[in-house]
User: What shape does this take?
Amino acid sequence: MTREYIEITDFEDPRLDVFARLNETQLRHYYEPDGGLFITESPKVTERALRAGCQPVCALVERSQALGEAAGVLESMPDIPVFTGSSDAIRKLTNIPMTRGLLCCMKRPGLKNVEELTTGMRRIAVLENVTNPTNVGAIIRSAAALGMEAVLLNHACSDPFYRRAARVSMGTVFQVPWTYLENSNMPKGMHYVRMLQSLGFRTAALALRKDTVSISDPCLAREEKLAVILGAEGDGLTDETIDLSDYTIKIPMAHGVDSLNVAACSAVAFWELSIH
Assistant: This one.
């Protein structure tokens, strides 16, 4: 069966709102109180979302890519409408420089709570107030590659399903289990560090303090269950988070450099602290 493509002839077509006129926050709340929508960019990211069980709604593809790089993933979504047009038309519609030729709108899957997600896990990453979607995507990619079994975020963090975060992660946001720290059975007002400790995790906060241990300290590697906590670019972790954590750790620096970008820091920390 040959797929029929819907040629873009009217930029005001309401069926194109998800690509052209709704921002990512509006997409996220599209079906409230049920789950919303998100947009994947590129065939690779879309394919990984599909493999994770995400349900496609519609797609937008450059005419030149429909039978090219995007053909395979489009064949795996035979029942959704696919809009097509020239590269210039799609860029004008979306204001997105399309480098890989495909956008796909998908339904957001439900998220597990912290207790359920982390059962049986020994190494997890925790993000506090990391608001830059590029950093969130890069951290999750490092988590996938370097031995972290899950990622927990507070609600102040950028959404891992935001288009830029998912793209930077190369789709690993659909491979590494993640959820929000607030999705927990912990008592109201209980700090998340205490909650993780109650689940059996020792907590290691990366921070620039004098009372730290080196990231290569063998006591860290010996911990049966470890949660590695990273904070926002610039501000870092809150004092309360650091004070409550079992360890405050730092990465030794040379040449007078005081710190790394949080995404680069995560890669070093995950490699050093994962179970090899």
